[in-house]
Task: structure prediction
Amino acid sequence: MEHKFYDLIKMDEIAQGDENFIKDMVVTFVENVTEDIGKIRSARSVEDWKTIGEVAHKMASRFAYLDADSLQTLSGDIEKSVLIEKNLDGIAEKTDKLCNDSFLLIEQLKQDFDFLRTN
Result:
């Protein structure tokens, strides 16, 4: 069985049965994280670690909405390493993993939600 990167339990509680709310949140998540992946890849190509740290910070809070714990932890680790500790050891590999796993999460959402397949 494929590893699920997300869980909608928290979002279901917030939505209180409002399917449109969940749809809007998932669509917004996909749009934002897709943009974030692009920003990180662009910043990585020019070794702009500060931007990577800032985008990783935003991504960590986005992942919290979907209980995407492994990605939330990874993005938080990147943020902390770059912006607080100024430690770049392994950051290139971590940012690659963050982008790749974020893309896989988006693909899982597209498989699970018909409304994402048309976008």
